[in-house]
Write a structure and sequence with these properties.
The chain has 468 residues and is of the alpha/beta class. The chain contains 16 helices and eleven strands. The protein has a domain at 7-225: Amidase signature (AS) enzymes (Alpha-Beta Complex), CATH 3.90.1300. The protein has helices at 7-10, 19-32, 44-59, 101-108, 151-158, 175-181, 215-225, 257-260, 267-282, 295-313, 332-343, 346-359, 364-388, 410-414, 421-426, 455-464, and strands at 39-42, 70-74, 112-117, 164-169, 184-187, 207-212, 252-256, 286-290, 391-395, 430-437, 443-449. It starts with 6 loop residues before the first helix and ends with a helix.
Length: 468
Protein backbone atom coordinates (compact mmCIF):
# COMPACT_ATOMS: atom_id res chain seq x y z
CA UNK A 1 0.00 0.00 0.00
CA UNK A 2 1.42 3.39 -1.01
CA UNK A 3 0.83 6.72 0.74
CA UNK A 4 -1.99 8.97 -0.44
CA UNK A 5 -0.96 10.13 -3.90
CA UNK A 6 -1.25 13.85 -3.24
CA UNK A 7 -0.10 15.61 -0.09
CA UNK A 8 -2.97 18.04 -0.62
CA UNK A 9 -5.40 15.11 -0.44
CA UNK A 10 -3.65 13.77 2.65
CA UNK A 11 -4.40 17.04 4.41
CA UNK A 12 -8.09 16.23 4.16
CA UNK A 13 -7.58 13.07 6.22
CA UNK A 14 -7.44 12.86 10.04
CA UNK A 15 -3.81 13.70 10.85
CA UNK A 16 -3.32 13.03 14.54
CA UNK A 17 -0.75 10.28 14.95
CA UNK A 18 -0.93 9.43 11.24
CA UNK A 19 2.46 10.45 9.85
CA UNK A 20 4.23 7.39 11.20
CA UNK A 21 1.80 5.07 9.43
CA UNK A 22 2.10 7.09 6.20
CA UNK A 23 5.87 6.74 6.31
CA UNK A 24 5.62 2.99 6.92
CA UNK A 25 3.35 2.70 3.88
CA UNK A 26 5.82 4.70 1.81
CA UNK A 27 8.78 2.56 2.88
CA UNK A 28 6.81 -0.63 2.18
CA UNK A 29 5.78 0.64 -1.26
CA UNK A 30 9.38 1.50 -2.10
CA UNK A 31 10.61 -1.92 -0.93
CA UNK A 32 7.90 -3.64 -2.97
CA UNK A 33 9.08 -1.86 -6.14
CA UNK A 34 12.82 -2.41 -5.75
CA UNK A 35 12.90 -3.76 -9.32
CA UNK A 36 12.52 -0.17 -10.57
CA UNK A 37 15.95 0.61 -9.09
CA UNK A 38 14.60 4.08 -8.31
CA UNK A 39 16.12 4.12 -4.80
CA UNK A 40 19.77 3.59 -3.98
CA UNK A 41 18.99 3.60 -0.26
CA UNK A 42 15.96 3.87 1.99
CA UNK A 43 16.41 5.83 5.22
CA UNK A 44 14.32 3.59 7.46
CA UNK A 45 15.69 4.77 10.82
CA UNK A 46 15.87 8.53 10.22
CA UNK A 47 12.51 8.57 8.42
CA UNK A 48 10.82 6.87 11.36
CA UNK A 49 12.51 9.22 13.83
CA UNK A 50 11.43 12.28 11.84
CA UNK A 51 7.88 10.90 11.52
CA UNK A 52 7.67 10.47 15.29
CA UNK A 53 8.81 14.08 15.80
CA UNK A 54 6.24 15.32 13.29
CA UNK A 55 3.43 13.34 14.92
CA UNK A 56 4.38 14.84 18.28
CA UNK A 57 4.34 18.34 16.78
CA UNK A 58 0.93 17.69 15.20
CA UNK A 59 -0.49 16.51 18.51
CA UNK A 60 0.96 19.61 20.21
CA UNK A 61 -0.59 21.91 17.60
CA UNK A 62 2.85 23.00 16.38
CA UNK A 63 3.02 21.27 12.99
CA UNK A 64 4.94 22.90 10.15
CA UNK A 65 3.42 23.63 6.73
CA UNK A 66 4.69 20.36 5.24
CA UNK A 67 3.69 18.02 8.06
CA UNK A 68 2.66 14.86 6.28
CA UNK A 69 4.76 15.30 3.14
CA UNK A 70 6.82 12.20 2.33
CA UNK A 71 9.86 12.99 0.19
CA UNK A 72 12.72 11.39 -1.67
CA UNK A 73 15.91 13.25 -2.64
CA UNK A 74 18.15 12.79 -5.65
CA UNK A 75 21.53 11.23 -4.91
CA UNK A 76 23.39 14.49 -5.55
CA UNK A 77 21.69 16.41 -2.72
CA UNK A 78 23.39 16.26 0.68
CA UNK A 79 21.62 15.10 3.85
CA UNK A 80 23.74 15.17 6.99
CA UNK A 81 24.66 11.74 8.32
CA UNK A 82 23.42 10.02 5.14
CA UNK A 83 25.32 8.67 2.17
CA UNK A 84 25.47 10.66 -1.07
CA UNK A 85 27.31 9.48 -4.17
CA UNK A 86 25.94 11.31 -7.24
CA UNK A 87 25.43 7.70 -8.44
CA UNK A 88 29.17 7.43 -9.06
CA UNK A 89 31.77 4.91 -7.89
CA UNK A 90 34.11 7.78 -7.11
CA UNK A 91 31.89 8.82 -4.17
CA UNK A 92 30.61 5.38 -3.22
CA UNK A 93 30.34 5.05 0.55
CA UNK A 94 30.75 8.77 1.24
CA UNK A 95 28.62 10.14 4.11
CA UNK A 96 27.64 13.80 4.00
CA UNK A 97 28.83 16.05 6.84
CA UNK A 98 26.07 18.60 6.31
CA UNK A 99 22.64 19.03 4.74
CA UNK A 100 21.72 21.06 1.69
CA UNK A 101 19.84 24.26 2.55
CA UNK A 102 16.81 22.96 0.63
CA UNK A 103 16.83 19.80 2.76
CA UNK A 104 17.18 21.77 6.01
CA UNK A 105 14.20 23.95 5.11
CA UNK A 106 12.03 20.97 4.22
CA UNK A 107 12.87 19.16 7.44
CA UNK A 108 12.21 22.33 9.44
CA UNK A 109 8.76 22.45 7.80
CA UNK A 110 8.18 18.86 9.05
CA UNK A 111 8.57 16.94 5.79
CA UNK A 112 9.93 13.38 6.06
CA UNK A 113 12.67 12.09 3.72
CA UNK A 114 12.54 8.33 3.13
CA UNK A 115 15.46 7.76 0.76
CA UNK A 116 17.91 8.84 -1.93
CA UNK A 117 17.13 8.16 -5.56
CA UNK A 118 19.20 6.88 -8.42
CA UNK A 119 20.31 9.30 -11.14
CA UNK A 120 22.64 9.58 -14.10
CA UNK A 121 26.19 9.82 -12.76
CA UNK A 122 26.88 13.38 -11.62
CA UNK A 123 23.54 14.32 -13.24
CA UNK A 124 24.95 13.73 -16.72
CA UNK A 125 22.37 12.06 -18.93
CA UNK A 126 18.86 12.06 -20.36
CA UNK A 127 17.79 8.47 -19.70
CA UNK A 128 19.09 7.40 -16.26
CA UNK A 129 21.12 4.69 -17.98
CA UNK A 130 24.45 6.26 -16.91
CA UNK A 131 24.29 5.48 -13.18
CA UNK A 132 27.13 3.42 -11.76
CA UNK A 133 24.46 1.45 -9.87
CA UNK A 134 22.27 0.39 -12.77
CA UNK A 135 19.51 1.86 -14.88
CA UNK A 136 16.13 3.02 -13.55
CA UNK A 137 12.91 1.59 -15.00
CA UNK A 138 9.92 3.76 -15.87
CA UNK A 139 6.98 2.79 -13.59
CA UNK A 140 4.52 3.57 -16.41
CA UNK A 141 6.18 1.01 -18.70
CA UNK A 142 9.25 -0.80 -17.41
CA UNK A 143 10.76 -1.40 -20.83
CA UNK A 144 11.09 2.39 -21.22
CA UNK A 145 13.53 4.86 -19.68
CA UNK A 146 12.20 7.29 -17.04
CA UNK A 147 14.27 10.16 -18.45
CA UNK A 148 17.25 11.76 -16.84
CA UNK A 149 19.22 12.75 -15.07
CA UNK A 150 16.62 12.80 -12.27
CA UNK A 151 14.97 9.58 -13.44
CA UNK A 152 14.98 7.92 -10.03
CA UNK A 153 13.30 10.93 -8.44
CA UNK A 154 10.63 11.01 -11.16
CA UNK A 155 10.09 7.26 -10.84
CA UNK A 156 9.70 7.48 -7.06
CA UNK A 157 6.78 9.88 -7.53
CA UNK A 158 5.23 8.11 -10.52
CA UNK A 159 5.37 4.81 -8.64
CA UNK A 160 3.38 6.33 -5.77
CA UNK A 161 6.05 5.84 -3.11
CA UNK A 162 6.30 9.53 -2.16
CA UNK A 163 4.25 12.69 -2.49
CA UNK A 164 7.19 14.78 -3.74
CA UNK A 165 10.76 14.17 -4.87
CA UNK A 166 13.67 16.58 -5.12
CA UNK A 167 15.68 16.55 -8.33
CA UNK A 168 18.15 18.87 -9.99
CA UNK A 169 17.78 20.48 -13.40
CA UNK A 170 20.84 21.47 -15.42
CA UNK A 171 19.43 21.34 -18.96
CA UNK A 172 16.05 19.69 -18.46
CA UNK A 173 16.85 17.00 -15.92
CA UNK A 174 13.60 17.58 -13.99
CA UNK A 175 11.25 18.48 -16.83
CA UNK A 176 12.17 15.69 -19.26
CA UNK A 177 11.72 12.88 -16.68
CA UNK A 178 8.47 14.53 -15.59
CA UNK A 179 7.23 14.35 -19.17
CA UNK A 180 8.27 10.69 -19.52
CA UNK A 181 6.62 9.62 -16.24
CA UNK A 182 3.44 11.70 -16.26
CA UNK A 183 4.38 13.88 -13.28
CA UNK A 184 4.70 17.62 -12.64
CA UNK A 185 8.30 18.87 -12.72
CA UNK A 186 9.41 22.42 -11.85
CA UNK A 187 12.73 24.11 -12.61
CA UNK A 188 12.70 27.36 -10.62
CA UNK A 189 14.42 30.60 -11.60
CA UNK A 190 18.19 30.35 -11.29
CA UNK A 191 19.08 31.72 -7.86
CA UNK A 192 15.61 31.19 -6.37
CA UNK A 193 16.52 28.00 -4.47
CA UNK A 194 19.91 27.58 -2.84
CA UNK A 195 22.42 25.25 -4.48
CA UNK A 196 24.31 24.84 -1.20
CA UNK A 197 24.61 21.10 -0.65
CA UNK A 198 23.94 20.19 -4.30
CA UNK A 199 26.88 18.32 -5.81
CA UNK A 200 27.78 20.54 -8.75
CA UNK A 201 27.66 19.55 -12.40
CA UNK A 202 27.47 22.99 -14.08
CA UNK A 203 27.22 25.75 -11.52
CA UNK A 204 25.64 28.43 -13.71
CA UNK A 205 22.88 26.05 -14.83
CA UNK A 206 22.09 23.73 -11.89
CA UNK A 207 18.90 24.29 -9.91
CA UNK A 208 17.10 22.14 -7.34
CA UNK A 209 13.40 21.62 -7.98
CA UNK A 210 10.48 19.31 -7.13
CA UNK A 211 8.54 16.52 -8.81
CA UNK A 212 4.96 15.97 -7.64
CA UNK A 213 1.58 14.61 -8.67
CA UNK A 214 -0.07 18.04 -8.57
CA UNK A 215 0.86 21.69 -9.00
CA UNK A 216 -0.53 22.37 -5.52
CA UNK A 217 2.01 20.01 -3.96
CA UNK A 218 4.74 21.47 -6.16
CA UNK A 219 3.91 24.98 -5.00
CA UNK A 220 3.85 24.03 -1.31
CA UNK A 221 7.32 22.49 -1.43
CA UNK A 222 8.75 25.21 -3.68
CA UNK A 223 7.61 27.97 -1.32
CA UNK A 224 9.38 26.36 1.65
CA UNK A 225 12.67 25.92 -0.23
CA UNK A 226 12.76 29.28 -2.04
CA UNK A 227 14.59 32.33 -0.78
CA UNK A 228 17.99 33.85 -0.16
CA UNK A 229 20.69 31.73 1.46
CA UNK A 230 23.86 33.37 2.87
CA UNK A 231 25.70 30.12 2.11
CA UNK A 232 25.04 30.51 -1.64
CA UNK A 233 26.13 33.82 -3.15
CA UNK A 234 24.15 33.10 -6.34
CA UNK A 235 20.79 33.11 -4.54
CA UNK A 236 18.66 36.19 -5.02
CA UNK A 237 17.72 38.51 -2.14
CA UNK A 238 14.48 39.31 -3.94
CA UNK A 239 11.51 38.46 -1.68
CA UNK A 240 9.65 35.27 -2.51
CA UNK A 241 6.19 36.08 -3.82
CA UNK A 242 3.40 34.17 -2.04
CA UNK A 243 1.93 31.35 -4.12
CA UNK A 244 -1.88 31.53 -4.01
CA UNK A 245 -2.76 29.56 -7.18
CA UNK A 246 -5.56 32.01 -7.87
CA UNK A 247 -6.71 32.12 -11.50
CA UNK A 248 -4.34 34.51 -13.33
CA UNK A 249 -7.02 35.79 -15.73
CA UNK A 250 -6.58 36.16 -19.47
CA UNK A 251 -2.95 35.72 -20.50
CA UNK A 252 -0.72 36.50 -23.45
CA UNK A 253 0.93 33.21 -24.39
CA UNK A 254 3.60 32.69 -27.04
CA UNK A 255 4.63 29.50 -28.79
CA UNK A 256 7.47 28.57 -31.13
CA UNK A 257 6.10 27.58 -34.52
CA UNK A 258 9.51 26.35 -35.73
CA UNK A 259 9.66 23.92 -32.85
CA UNK A 260 6.44 22.25 -33.94
CA UNK A 261 7.61 21.98 -37.54
CA UNK A 262 10.96 20.47 -36.63
CA UNK A 263 11.97 17.07 -38.02
CA UNK A 264 11.78 14.31 -35.43
CA UNK A 265 8.70 15.64 -33.65
CA UNK A 266 6.14 12.97 -32.82
CA UNK A 267 2.94 13.84 -34.77
CA UNK A 268 0.76 13.17 -31.72
CA UNK A 269 2.83 15.56 -29.60
CA UNK A 270 2.44 18.23 -32.30
CA UNK A 271 -1.31 17.57 -32.55
CA UNK A 272 -1.66 17.86 -28.77
CA UNK A 273 0.21 21.17 -28.79
CA UNK A 274 -2.05 22.51 -31.53
CA UNK A 275 -5.11 21.40 -29.58
CA UNK A 276 -3.83 23.25 -26.50
CA UNK A 277 -3.28 26.39 -28.60
CA UNK A 278 -6.79 26.18 -30.05
CA UNK A 279 -8.30 25.64 -26.58
CA UNK A 280 -6.46 28.60 -25.10
CA UNK A 281 -7.62 30.87 -27.92
CA UNK A 282 -11.21 29.67 -27.46
CA UNK A 283 -10.98 30.54 -23.76
CA UNK A 284 -10.02 34.12 -24.61
CA UNK A 285 -6.26 34.05 -24.12
CA UNK A 286 -4.02 35.75 -26.69
CA UNK A 287 -1.85 33.04 -28.23
CA UNK A 288 0.68 34.01 -30.90
CA UNK A 289 3.70 32.42 -32.56
CA UNK A 290 7.17 33.91 -32.03
CA UNK A 291 10.59 33.04 -33.40
CA UNK A 292 12.90 30.68 -31.54
CA UNK A 293 16.21 32.25 -30.49
CA UNK A 294 18.87 30.22 -32.32
CA UNK A 295 17.08 26.87 -31.87
CA UNK A 296 19.76 24.80 -33.58
CA UNK A 297 22.46 26.50 -31.52
CA UNK A 298 20.89 26.04 -28.09
CA UNK A 299 21.94 22.44 -27.44
CA UNK A 300 25.55 22.92 -28.70
CA UNK A 301 25.86 26.13 -26.65
CA UNK A 302 24.56 24.39 -23.56
CA UNK A 303 26.88 21.40 -23.89
CA UNK A 304 29.97 23.53 -24.53
CA UNK A 305 29.34 25.62 -21.44
CA UNK A 306 28.04 22.84 -19.20
CA UNK A 307 30.95 20.50 -19.97
CA UNK A 308 33.44 23.32 -19.41
CA UNK A 309 31.97 23.91 -15.95
CA UNK A 310 31.84 20.17 -15.29
CA UNK A 311 35.54 19.72 -16.08
CA UNK A 312 36.32 22.34 -13.46
CA UNK A 313 33.82 21.18 -10.83
CA UNK A 314 34.81 17.51 -11.05
CA UNK A 315 38.53 18.23 -10.70
CA UNK A 316 38.07 17.97 -6.91
CA UNK A 317 37.36 14.22 -7.22
CA UNK A 318 41.00 13.20 -7.43
CA UNK A 319 41.42 10.17 -5.17
CA UNK A 320 43.26 12.23 -2.56
CA UNK A 321 40.77 14.18 -0.44
CA UNK A 322 37.72 11.91 -0.58
CA UNK A 323 36.13 9.25 -2.70
CA UNK A 324 37.66 6.32 -4.56
CA UNK A 325 41.45 5.94 -4.49
CA UNK A 326 43.14 3.44 -6.77
CA UNK A 327 45.03 0.66 -5.01
CA UNK A 328 47.21 0.18 -8.10
CA UNK A 329 48.67 3.67 -8.17
CA UNK A 330 52.23 4.58 -7.28
CA UNK A 331 52.85 8.28 -6.78
CA UNK A 332 50.58 11.30 -6.86
CA UNK A 333 50.21 11.63 -10.64
CA UNK A 334 49.28 7.99 -11.07
CA UNK A 335 46.85 8.23 -8.13
CA UNK A 336 45.02 11.06 -9.90
CA UNK A 337 44.97 9.27 -13.24
CA UNK A 338 44.01 5.77 -12.12
CA UNK A 339 41.53 6.84 -9.45
CA UNK A 340 39.57 8.95 -11.94
CA UNK A 341 39.91 6.41 -14.76
CA UNK A 342 38.63 3.57 -12.58
CA UNK A 343 35.76 5.38 -10.88
CA UNK A 344 34.27 7.77 -13.44
CA UNK A 345 31.83 6.30 -15.96
CA UNK A 346 32.02 6.74 -19.76
CA UNK A 347 29.61 9.69 -19.99
CA UNK A 348 31.34 11.62 -17.21
CA UNK A 349 34.73 11.02 -18.84
CA UNK A 350 33.36 12.16 -22.20
CA UNK A 351 32.09 15.43 -20.73
CA UNK A 352 35.23 16.12 -18.72
CA UNK A 353 37.34 15.65 -21.84
CA UNK A 354 35.05 17.82 -23.94
CA UNK A 355 35.00 20.51 -21.28
CA UNK A 356 38.78 20.47 -20.93
CA UNK A 357 39.10 20.73 -24.71
CA UNK A 358 36.83 23.79 -25.07
CA UNK A 359 38.71 25.53 -22.23
CA UNK A 360 42.16 24.80 -23.65
CA UNK A 361 44.33 27.70 -24.81
CA UNK A 362 44.00 26.90 -28.51
CA UNK A 363 40.21 26.54 -28.53
CA UNK A 364 38.91 28.77 -25.72
CA UNK A 365 37.95 31.70 -27.97
CA UNK A 366 36.51 29.51 -30.73
CA UNK A 367 34.28 27.47 -28.45
CA UNK A 368 33.84 28.61 -24.85
CA UNK A 369 33.96 32.38 -25.42
CA UNK A 370 31.74 32.13 -28.48
CA UNK A 371 29.23 29.96 -26.61
CA UNK A 372 29.04 32.59 -23.88
CA UNK A 373 28.17 35.20 -26.52
CA UNK A 374 25.46 32.96 -27.97
CA UNK A 375 24.10 32.33 -24.47
CA UNK A 376 23.74 36.08 -23.98
CA UNK A 377 21.81 36.41 -27.27
CA UNK A 378 19.48 33.55 -26.27
CA UNK A 379 18.91 35.03 -22.81
CA UNK A 380 18.25 38.54 -24.15
CA UNK A 381 15.82 37.23 -26.78
CA UNK A 382 14.01 35.06 -24.22
CA UNK A 383 13.65 37.89 -21.72
CA UNK A 384 12.46 40.28 -24.43
CA UNK A 385 9.77 37.77 -25.44
CA UNK A 386 8.67 37.41 -21.81
CA UNK A 387 8.27 41.18 -21.51
CA UNK A 388 5.73 41.00 -24.33
CA UNK A 389 4.10 37.70 -23.25
CA UNK A 390 3.21 36.21 -19.87
CA UNK A 391 4.21 32.65 -20.75
CA UNK A 392 5.87 30.64 -23.49
CA UNK A 393 4.25 27.30 -24.38
CA UNK A 394 6.19 24.42 -25.94
CA UNK A 395 6.43 20.64 -25.88
CA UNK A 396 8.64 19.39 -23.08
CA UNK A 397 10.19 16.73 -25.31
CA UNK A 398 9.88 15.78 -29.00
CA UNK A 399 8.61 12.26 -28.15
CA UNK A 400 7.39 10.02 -25.38
CA UNK A 401 9.82 7.86 -23.38
CA UNK A 402 12.06 5.63 -25.47
CA UNK A 403 13.16 2.06 -24.83
CA UNK A 404 16.25 1.20 -22.80
CA UNK A 405 19.25 1.08 -25.13
CA UNK A 406 17.34 2.64 -28.02
CA UNK A 407 19.64 5.68 -28.27
CA UNK A 408 23.35 4.89 -28.38
CA UNK A 409 24.60 7.99 -30.20
CA UNK A 410 25.61 10.62 -27.61
CA UNK A 411 24.65 13.50 -29.91
CA UNK A 412 21.19 12.03 -30.49
CA UNK A 413 20.82 11.67 -26.72
CA UNK A 414 21.86 15.30 -26.19
CA UNK A 415 19.12 16.42 -28.60
CA UNK A 416 16.53 15.16 -26.11
CA UNK A 417 17.10 18.55 -24.45
CA UNK A 418 16.10 20.61 -27.50
CA UNK A 419 13.13 22.30 -25.78
CA UNK A 420 14.38 22.35 -22.20
CA UNK A 421 17.88 23.90 -22.33
CA UNK A 422 16.59 27.38 -23.17
CA UNK A 423 15.27 27.92 -19.62
CA UNK A 424 18.67 26.99 -18.17
CA UNK A 425 20.57 29.15 -20.63
CA UNK A 426 18.29 32.10 -19.82
CA UNK A 427 17.85 31.40 -16.10
CA UNK A 428 14.06 31.43 -16.34
CA UNK A 429 11.57 29.22 -14.46
CA UNK A 430 9.87 26.44 -16.43
CA UNK A 431 7.49 23.62 -15.63
CA UNK A 432 6.48 20.38 -17.35
CA UNK A 433 2.81 19.47 -17.00
CA UNK A 434 1.37 15.98 -17.70
CA UNK A 435 -1.37 16.93 -20.15
CA UNK A 436 -1.08 14.25 -22.84
CA UNK A 437 -1.30 10.49 -23.30
CA UNK A 438 0.01 8.98 -26.53
CA UNK A 439 -1.70 6.18 -28.45
CA UNK A 440 1.22 4.00 -27.29
CA UNK A 441 -0.10 4.44 -23.74
CA UNK A 442 2.78 6.61 -22.54
CA UNK A 443 2.38 10.08 -21.01
CA UNK A 444 3.97 13.24 -22.30
CA UNK A 445 4.07 16.82 -21.11
CA UNK A 446 3.86 20.40 -22.24
CA UNK A 447 6.25 23.05 -20.95
CA UNK A 448 5.45 26.54 -19.72
CA UNK A 449 8.20 29.15 -19.29
CA UNK A 450 7.82 32.44 -17.40
CA UNK A 451 10.03 35.45 -16.79
CA UNK A 452 12.53 35.23 -13.91
CA UNK A 453 10.98 35.10 -10.42
CA UNK A 454 7.45 34.82 -11.83
CA UNK A 455 6.81 31.38 -10.34
CA UNK A 456 3.55 32.60 -8.80
CA UNK A 457 1.96 33.20 -12.20
CA UNK A 458 3.61 30.13 -13.72
CA UNK A 459 2.17 27.85 -11.03
CA UNK A 460 -1.23 29.55 -11.01
CA UNK A 461 -1.57 29.12 -14.78
CA UNK A 462 -0.44 25.52 -14.51
CA UNK A 463 -3.11 24.76 -11.90
CA UNK A 464 -6.04 26.85 -13.10
CA UNK A 465 -5.64 27.01 -16.88
CA UNK A 466 -4.02 23.64 -17.53
CA UNK A 467 -5.75 21.83 -14.66
CA UNK A 468 -2.72 20.05 -13.22
Amino acid sequence: MSPTKSFSEAHLLPRSGSIGSTVEQALAAAEAQRDLNAYLELFHDSAREQAARVDARINAGEAGPLAGVVLSIKDNICYKGHKVSASSRILEGFTSLYSATAVERLLAADAVIIGRTNCDEFAMGSSNENSAFGKVLNPVEKTMVPGGSSGGAAASVAAGTVHVALGSDTGGSIRQPASFTGTVGLKPTYGRISRYGLIAFASSFDQIGPFAHTVEDTAAVYQVMAGHDPKDATTSKRPVEPITLEHPGKLRIAYYREGLERAGMDPEVVAHMQAQIDRLKAEGHIVEPISVPLLDHQVPTYYILATAEASSNLARFDGIRFGHRSTKAQGVDETYRLSRSEAFGPEVKRRILLGTFVLSAGYYDAYYAQAQRVRRIIRDHTLASLEEFDLILSPTCPTTAFAHGAITDPVAMYLQDIFTVQANLAGTPAISLPTGTHSNGLPFGIQLTAKPFDEARLLAASARIFGC
